[in-house]
Amino acid sequence: MTGPAEISAAVADAHRRGWALVLAATARVARDLDLAEECVQEAYAAALKAWSRTGIPREPVAWLTTTAKRRALDVLRREQVFRTKLPLLMDPGEAATDELSTVEDEAVAGSEPVEPADVVPDERLRLIFLCCHPALAQEAQMALTLRLVCGVPTSELARAFLVSEPTMAARLTRAKKKISVARIPYRIPSAGALPDRLGGVLGVIHLLFTMGHTAPAGDSLVRADLMDQALHLARMLSELMPDEPEVRGLLALLLLSHARRATRVDDRGRLLRLSEQDRSQWDRSMIAEARDLIMAGLRGGRAGRYLLQAAIASIYVDAPTYDQTDWAQILALYDRLLQVWPSPVVAVNRTVALAEVQGPGSALAEIEALEQDHRLTGYQYLPAIKAELLARLGRRVDASVAYRRALELTTNEVERAFLAERLAEANHPESRR
Amino acid sequence: MAQYAIMLFAKAPADSADLTPEERAAHARHAEDVTALGGQMLTAFALQPSTMATSVRGDVVTDGPFLDAKEVVAGVYVIEAPDLDTALEIARRNPATQQGGGVEVRPVASSFIAPPAKA
To answer: Which residues in chain A have their CB less than 8 angstroms from residue B88's CB?
Structure first.
């Protein structure tokens, strides 16, 4: 007999590790996302009861998969829609009947099914590509990925995205309806479309992480749950597509950022600059893992944006102290990054390294040129960096103006407090903390 | 297979007389893309320019297209395709996307096509 605490821990663990697998496999049978979700939820609920009776199965995720699939099959039979239902979530040409007969055989076979055939990772990959289909709005892609791939409940999603629960539920329903009405296929994109589609998936994961890293509004700098889920997704993707350099790059980038999360704010919740962070508190194992990923990725030839961003972050992190940062190397990597990803935001970030290599004057000239780019209107880090450069050049009045501008554009309370402090410093340099 | 309507949008007034001979030829060739990518063309219409349009909203009849926009509907065709990815791949090859306009892909809910009238 296993204790209740142990059982719920096992279920929670199977939820974290196995949700995507169970749902992806069930969706194949159910051919309807709502039905699949429902059956998977029921399977997890059933596990609590069944496992306290029979003990924790050797393969909990396989147990859940079979249970969820059987339920889906039962519902389909009961509703008698099995033969006539549109194959909504099927790849044309694939025989759904094979899958179903496998489940039936297992249903007959015994009480603790083990289905090695089910644990094919491609199932999860299909699900990820489905959730991140470009025909869905990006906010729907993010919500759907968290809901279907990570199993995050709608109520938590609503909180994370700062909307009401009915709004979030409606967003998910609309997305699922579009998948079935417009017939968004449940499959891995063709080789020709893969780079584009993979870029979309990576973009969703990165955006989730960024949202968690610096919540767009509110007073908590770290929305840890979103960051954890994004990291979980990046790991899953890297497990599923281990040879894609950009997948490695994204995972490395997230790891490097995550490794420093404990030191981003001080005890009072105040934002700390990289130069002020306690490097001994960084998670060295995450940093080492990231470095291996970057090395492996760079061997793969032409580096993409995520790999280069990760490489830049790793150089920051590698320096024993802030002053010993290899700025020339960072600047060189920024130049490469701008080639593969000519984004004005990258150009702004590059000026930070430029200031260290060529001095704040050169960086300021670059920032002033970038101010003409209308795409950067409203980008709060531009005036923030400009203010910092002006302060370093001793132009305190201009620095104040720029800090005020940055404050106007910033909604995150922790970042606002940081900027307000810098503004006060620019106005009264003697009161430096 | 599912049916998708593909609506072409072009800069108002979307007059096909403004197209160059090359552009017109590209449109004529697009039907081949549909079959080459595994779809089927069911029906297609090119429209007169939007300056020829008349709109009715409630009881009010006005000259011009229904929505006052920089781009207007220039034509519409309906294809059959196995899934959205195929339909989007076909839509992507539509010359309108390269001529300053674009296309909208909408799944068809229901349809009626009259049989040809007897001569």
So the answer is: 135
